[in-house]
């Protein structure tokens, strides 16, 4: 089963997409397997991190910006190499175990779509595989 979602993003932010993925698992009827959440973009990504304290996302965005600032020396003509670097650092997918028709996530974990070069209309894809 494959599910595609559309998302409208700001300039740079993390979007909690856990509820979309959880709904896809329920719709699929899969009791036991895996869900792969994939981002088909080069300046956005997917990650799993804390869903309770919003300051965690704020700190992650701050640290990514400090680690991968825009640099004059960058050659990429589009001028968004910083966004490409952040996307590669975060990665383009997450795999979550499915058990009892639900995601196996820790209490404080959420699945995030991470935008580094918005605002854009983006998409992400959820593939659910039964074991
Ligand atoms: Zn680019």
**Tally of strands:** 8
Secondary structure tally, helices: 3
Please give the CATH architecture: Sandwich
**Biggest sheet, spatial arrangement of strands:** 1-8-3-5-6
Helix content: 25-40%
Assembly level = single chain
**Averaging pLDDT over every residue, what do you get?**
98
Output the CATH topology.
Jelly Rolls
Would you kindly provide a written description of the structure presented here, covering whatever features stand out?
This protein is an alpha+beta fold. The protein has a single domain, classed as YjbQ-like (Jelly Rolls), CATH 2.60.120.460. The protein is 27% helix and 39% strand. The protein has a 5-stranded antiparallel beta sheet, covered by helices on one side. Strands 2-7-4 form a 3-stranded antiparallel beta sheet, sandwiched between helices. Strand 5 and strand 6 (102-103) form a beta hairpin. The longest helix is centred in the middle third of the chain and has 14 residues, at 54-67. The radius of gyration is 16 Å and the shape is elongated. The two termini are 13 Å apart. The mean pLDDT is 98. Residues 76, 78, 80, 84 line the site of zinc ion. Zinc ion is lined by residues 76, 78, 80, 84.
Summary, kept brief:
It is built from three helices and eight strands, in the order E-E-H-E-E-H-H-E-E-E-E.
